[in-house]
UniProtKB/TrEMBL annotation, chain B:
GO biological process, one term: transmembrane transport
A Pfam short name: BPD_transp_1
Name this protein carries in UniProt: Carbohydrate ABC transporter permease
Record localization: Cell membrane
Membrane topology reported for the UniProt record: Multi-pass membrane protein
Source organism of this protein record: Labedella phragmitis
Length: 314, 310
């Protein structure tokens, strides 16, 4: 079976965690084999559609290879050097601007809404449901909608801003505003998820803590920083980290809204790898860019996995 | 503020995607904030709801309004914030376009097959992760978790070549297989969460009564976890329905799903048919909205099981 090497690999590298994996669960003779058999179909599928493509994409980083022509030629680190000397740092900077913008803005909006909806003001249930709409609609619909709102000639954004003395802009077609517009669109899609997660967290904060603090004379703001934030620190860390990881590789909205333009100013790793491979047909360069991208991403994923493991042990 | 460092998170079971099912039930009212809010707190809550609510809902209103506006009135500036004339032309013109029905049919087939396949495979995997302890289990679980974070654009580089080599480009098979890259991890973690809530004693009892291991799964565990299977399947369906990048690249017009299909149909023309595009957007979003209405209880568990994202 294709998965056998992987299993042994996983086993070998972690024999020291043997103790951790022997638990108090009732086990019968042969259960181990049965348990692994259950995993085999899924693992085989993942080996075919995830592990193999990933490894093989990274291998192309060291070859000169075209999407449309057969054959390839080993070029060592040349692709990686080319990428680093090319627009890598511009892409890194733009990806970080996009990722930070689309993580911080939804967090602020989502947290504000979660706090507001956690009070006893009327209509919170209905509002909570309505606020989910932006998160429900498919990514391309988010793009269509904001493409229309930011339309240079007939867009409603220009019409709203004009009374405030802001000249009509071609939001998506000029380098200064395109990234901002893309971040707004992604923020609109992301904040409901933040809101739901943080609201779920807020509802686990014991009410007694707030009551006791209020008895001791702590004001609303004081209680927010001394009770709410520390109690939520775990969930805050989780949602910010996950959102950051997702946005670091986001593709749909950028691709449909601007296609990376104008003049490459909204290009991120995701759109650039895609363009290089499927419009430039340069698999080697796409692989090299992907390799560098994945290294950065995996650093984040390792942090996330550590974080989840800690949660599970508790 | 100084104490916001990450580690101490005493009362947040949400940090563990492993046991999401517990979180899904909304807590009792009593657990929320104080009953008698100060006026200033109430006021700021209202301001937050109105400002953020405007940001959330005005675009939705604009989508709806544009879809009901006659085509010639859309191309005027300044736009009419409240349409003076309402028409369903945009919706009827959708039905007149046979290509859209092809996309719709493809979307339904691919998303349904993806959901069924994902649930089927993940059920066994999730059960194994939940009820057995063996060496390498943790590592496998976190491989599955991390795999949904591998960038799709990068996977595509090779998936395209592989499918091309096997003549699978522009087939449902290619789309279904590529969709499982993100639905499988989601379903495995969600279902593991559901199986965790099934008491071990029940499984033991079945075994004592002489049921085989497989029989125990099929006649005891899966029926008990049926709501979980449905929820995971719906989440997988939605993720497949919303996919853009895989269907855009791996399929042509006759096998493409709605999201890339709509982009190809409407975007890039000199004058985009905005009312039709907004109407189509609304129609595409409907199945997702319905799925989530059914899913409300499992919303948070699905969200934490990872990456329920557009």
């Amino acid at each position: 079976m294709t998965t056998a090497p992987e299993l042994t690999q996983a086993n070998k590298s972690h024999t020291k965690s043997l103790r951790a994996s022997l638990s108090s669960k009732p086990q019968r003779l042969g259960d181990g084999i049965f348990a692994i058999l259950l995993v085999v179909p899924g693992l085989a599928l993942m080996a075919v559609v995830v592990a193999y493509p990933l490894v093989s994409a990274l291998v192309t980083a060291f070859f000169k290879q075209s999407l449309v022509l057969p054959g390839r030629e080993f070029v060592g680190l040349q692709n990686i050097i080319d990428v680093l000397q090319g627009n890598f740092f511009q892409l890194l900077q733009q990806t970080l601007v996009f990722t930070l913008g689309t993580t911080i803005a939804p967090f602020v909006i989502g947290f504000a809404l979660a706090l507001a909806l956690n009070t006893q003001i009327r209509g919170t249930k209905i509002m909570r449901g309505l606020m989910l709409i932006p998160w429900l609609v498919p990514g391309v619909v988010v793009s269509f909608l904001w493409m229309w709102i930011f339309n240079a000639n007939y867009g409603v954004m220009n019409a709203i801003l004009e009374p405030f003395g802001i000249e009509p802009q071609a939001w998506l077609a000029q380098p200064g505003t395109a990234m901002f517009a893309v971040i707004v669109a992604k923020t609109w899609q992301s904040f409901p998820w933040m809101m739901v997660m943080l609201l779920a967290g807020l509802q686990t904060v014991p009410r007694e803590l707030h009551e006791a603090a209020e008895m001791d004379g702590a004001g609303t703001i004081r209680r927010f920083f001394s009770i709410t934030v520390p109690q939520l620190s775990g969930i805050i860390g989780l949602v910010v980290l996950l959102e950051f990881i997702w946005n670091f590789q986001h593709f749909d909205i950028i691709y449909v809204l601007t296609g990376g333009g104008p003049a490459g100013t909204t290009e991120t790793f995701a759109t650039s790898v895609y363009e290089t491979a499927f419009h430039g047909f340069d698999l080697g360069r796409a692989g090299a860019l992907g390799l560098l991208w994945l290294v950065l991403l995996m650093a984040l994923v390792v942090v996330y996995v550590r974080f989840s493991e800690k949660g599970e042990k508790r | 503020m100084t104490s916001t460092a990450l580690p101490p998170a005493p009362s947040s079971p949400e940090t563990m995607p492993a046991a999401p099912a517990k979180v899904s039930r909304p807590r009792r009212r009593a657990a929320s904030a104080l009953r008698s809010e100060r006026p200033s707190v109430r006021l700021s809550a209202w301001i937050a709801v109105i400002v953020c609510g405007g940001f959330a809902l005005l675009p939705v209103y604009w989508l709806l309004a544009t879809s009901l506006t006659p085509r010639d009135q859309v191309f005027s500036y300044p736009p009419k914030l409240i349409p003076t004339e309402i028409t369903l032309d945009a919706y009827t013109s959708l039905f007149a376009n046979p290509q859209l029905f092809t996309y719709l049919q493809n979307s339904i087939i691919v998303s349904v097959v993806t959901a069924v396949l994902s649930v089927f495979v993940s059920a066994y995997m999730g059960y194994s992760f939940s009820k057995f302890r063996y060496r390498g289990r943790r590592q496998l679980m976190y491989f599955v978790l991390a795999s949904q974070m591998f960038p799709q654009a990068l996977l595509l580089v090779t998936l395209y070549s592989v499918f091309s080599a096997y003549g699978l480009l522009n087939t449902y098979t290619a789309l279904v297989l590529s969709f499982t890259t993100f639905t499988l991890p989601l379903c495995v973690w969600m279902l593991k969460g559901f199986f965790d809530t099934i008491p071990d004693e029940l499984i033991e009892a079945a075994r004592v009564d002489g049921a085989s291991r497989l029989r125990t799964i099929h006649s005891i565990v899966l029926p008990l976890a049926a709501p979980g299977l449905v929820a995971a399947g719906l989440f997988a369906f939605v993720r497949g329905w919303n996919d853009f990048i895989f269907a855009l690249t791996l399929a042509g017009p006759d096998k493409q799903t709605l999201p890339p299909g709509l982009v190809n149909t409407y975007v890039g023309e000199a004058a985009t048919a905005w009312p039709e595009l907004m109407a189509a957007s609304l129609v595409v979003s409907l199945p997702v909205a319905i799925a989530f209405m059914l899913l409300q209880r499992y919303l948070v568990s699905g969200m934490t099981a990872g990456a329920v994202k557009g």
